[in-house]
Amino acid sequence: MKNILIIAANPPATSRLRLEQEIRDVEEAIRRSRFREQFKLEIRVGGRPIDIQRALLDIEPQIVHFCGHGEGKSGLVLEDVAGLPKFVSAQALSSLFKLFANSVECVLLNACYSEVQADAIVQHINYVIGMNQEIRDDAAIAFAVGFYDALGAGKLVEFAYELGCVAIQTAIHQNTTGDRKLIPVDVVGESRTIEEHLKPVLKRKRLDL
Questions:
Q1: CA pair distance 189, 167, nearest whole angstrom
Q2: In this structure, are residues 12 and 83 in contact, taking their beta carbons and an 8 Å threshold?
Q3: Strand, coil or helix: what is 42?
Q4: At what angle do helices 19-31 and 137-152 cross, to 10 degrees?
Q5: What pLDDT does residue 10 have?
Q6: Residue (of 155, 177, 61) closest to 147 by Cα position
Q7: In the chain, which ranges are continuous DSSP H helix?
Q8: How far is CA 209 from CA 102, 128, 143, 158, 161, in A?
Q9: What is the mean pLDDT of the segment spanning 6-27?
Q10: What is the residue-averaged pLDDT of the chain?
């Protein structure tokens, strides 16, 4: 049995994302899959740092999926106790996942500019997926559906990642807008815009020889 922990954070002061749709679509992907009995889905909405710590302790997930806003070097956008945006740095996330490296196998950061956090977390976790630019809401959802469709069919993480990228190409409309960033001033102008299916990036933990 693999436990999947989905953490959804969309503080009131941030632009609205279709996180409920993402969660429903992931639930459906697991529910209809051939190996659905091998997965248990746990969902935490609100996404305060303390909620994440407690969920990691209580659930001991093998897969952790964050959906929400990303701000590049400023961090992932969670919530504080007042429901306001709380930026959590790459270093803080790296330190957190280091403590759970014996149980967590894969982390999916379905948020804009989250490659920074992926690079930090992959020091301790075998597979981490982040986004190298801002990603559209529909593309992020399509990637998640393709990813879990593949895992539910018994495929490995590498295959699931590739299918997620293909799902973006086949599912989204090219003229749609709307992404998962606020104002990431530390990355604006850094690179040219690329196609949506090229934005998810799979990181693999480097093994010491």
A1: 28
A2: yes
A3: strand
A4: 20
A5: 96
A6: 155
A7: 19-31, 49-59, 90-98, 115-121, 137-152, 157-171
A8: 19, 21, 33, 22, 26
A9: 96
A10: 92
How is residue 3 written in tokens? 């436990």
Taking the alpha carbons at both ends of the chain, their separation in whole angstroms is 31
In the predicted model, is pLDDT for residue 187 greater than 80? no
Residue 153: both structure tokens together? 């069919």
Please check whether residue 144 is in contact with residue 22, taking contact to mean a CB–CB distance below 8 angstroms.
yes
Report DSSP state, residue 184: -
Cβ 108 vs Cβ 138: under 8 Å: no
Phi, psi of 194 (to 5 degrees): -115, 170
Q: What pLDDT, in 10s, does the model give residues 53-69?
A: 999 999 999 999 999 99
**Amino acid residing at 99:** L
Q: Kindly list the distances between the CA atom of residue 102 and the CA atoms of 54, 61, 106, 178, 185, in Å, as whole numbers in the listed order.
A: 16, 10, 11, 37, 35
**96-109: per-residue pLDDT in tens?**
999 999 999 999 99
Phi, psi for 110 (deg, rounded to 5) = -90, 70
**C-alpha atoms less than 13 angstroms from C-alpha of 191 in its C-beta half-sphere:** 9
Cα–Cα distance measured from residue 139 to residue 160, given in angstroms and rounded to the nearest whole number: 15
Phi, psi values for residue 4, rounded to 5°? -110, 125
Q: What is the pLDDT of residue 188?
A: 45
